[in-house]
Amino acid sequence: MKTASKTEKIFRRIILLIVFSPLISCNQNDIQTDASGTFESTEIIVSSEASGKIIELSIQEGSLADSGQVAGYIDSTQLHLKRMQLIASVRAMDARQPEIEKQIAVIREQISVQEREKERIEKLLTANAATQKQMDDINSSISVLKRQLEAQRSSLKNTSEGLSGEASAARIQVEQLNDQIDKCLIKSPITGRVLVKYAEKGEIATAGKPLFKIADTENMFLRAYITADLVSTLKVGETVRVFADFGESGSREYEGSVAWVSDKAEFTPKAIKTRDERANLVYAVKIAVKNDGYLKIGMYGEIKIPK
Predict the structure, then answer these.
(1) Which residues form the domain of 105?
(2) Inside any domain, residue 121
(3) What is the dihedral of CA 273, 278, 284, 286, to 10 degrees?
(4) Which helix (H) or strand (E) holds 70?
(5) Using N-to-C axis directions, what is the helix angle for 105-126 and 132-183, rounded to 10°?
(6) Could you tell me if residue 124 is inside a domain?
(7) Going residue by residue through the chain (307 aa), what tens digit of pLDDT does each one get?
(8) How far apart are the first and last CA of the chain?
């Protein structure tokens, strides 16, 4: 009789566990959320800005990269050589620049001598010791020398401006080459994690060829869809509760901020559940969530809008 009693008690306990365990589980996991969706992040496909052989591309899929970090570089030997040639040309042009004041110094000295001679003749003319023809000759000589001075000054100035223009154009070409050389460096535009690597060291890259895809996994977004009756209660910047679904491990709650609310209604995506399953038209929203390392792109999540 004691054995039967114990067996009966155990049987009753099993029945009670079977009956009430779903209810207990439901109460623990059933979160009354308002919308659901999937997590995404800002993804950027980094393409080559130059053409040539990839000398180095050290990043790997899954690795982290900082904004501005050099991930590799493309062969820029010919660009460097052309840059050196242009710099040498600029130096040669600068060396050929005429020293105008030095080159016209001879004519200036001749004019100065003639003007002193003119003063002497003027004194002699006053004393009737010189003729008017001598005065006319010296004036004519000074006039010719002054015209020669202006002509030489103008010619040297034109030569100088021409060389300066050519040197300036060459310097601009040097800056263009500097920019092209800089674009041979493969840099990460953002801080994030490398998702896909499209090229390898030794391959030939062309301008516009995708090299790798990187995503800002530190700042995630939950793209969800809410019904029309909830749009009026939601505004950009508002704080909401976000629940990330980790499958059998349960869910994890995060604090999210409304980053964007669509102003255009659309039909409910088939894979998305809304609070009202009968709703055909919904509005897309993006909830910004700070990633603690657990969130992954494509993970399922839900939001709870504060009332």
Answers:
(1) 77-183
(2) yes
(3) -40
(4) strand 70-74
(5) 160
(6) yes
(7) 444 455 555 445 444 443 333 333 333 345 578 888 999 999 999 999 999 999 999 999 999 999 999 999 999 999 999 999 999 999 999 999 998 888 889 999 999 999 999 999 888 888 888 888 989 998 999 999 999 999 999 999 999 999 999 999 999 999 999 999 999 999 999 999 999 999 999 999 999 999 999 999 999 999 998 888 888 788 899 999 999 988 777 889 999 999 999 888 887 665 555 555 545 688 999 999 999 989 999 999 999 988 7
(8) 59
Distance CA 164, CA 157 (A): 10
Residue 229 is assigned to a structural domain of this protein:
no
Task: With beta carbons less than 8 A apart as the criterion, state whether 45 and 209 touch.
Answer: no
Among candidate residues 31, 41, 33, the one with its CA nearest the CA of residue 288: 41
Tell me which residue of 305, 271, 270 sits closest to 285, measured CA to CA: 305
User: Can you tell me which residue has the tokens 């002509």?
Assistant: 151
* H helix and E strand count, the chain: 6, 13
Q: Given the structure tokens 């809008």, which residue do they identify? A: 305
Residue 114 near residue 187, CB atoms below 8 Å: no
| Residue 31 is assigned to a structural domain of this protein | no
Token reading at 149 = 């001075």
What is the number of domains present in the chain?
1
Q: What are phi and psi of 201, to 5 degrees?
A: -60, 135
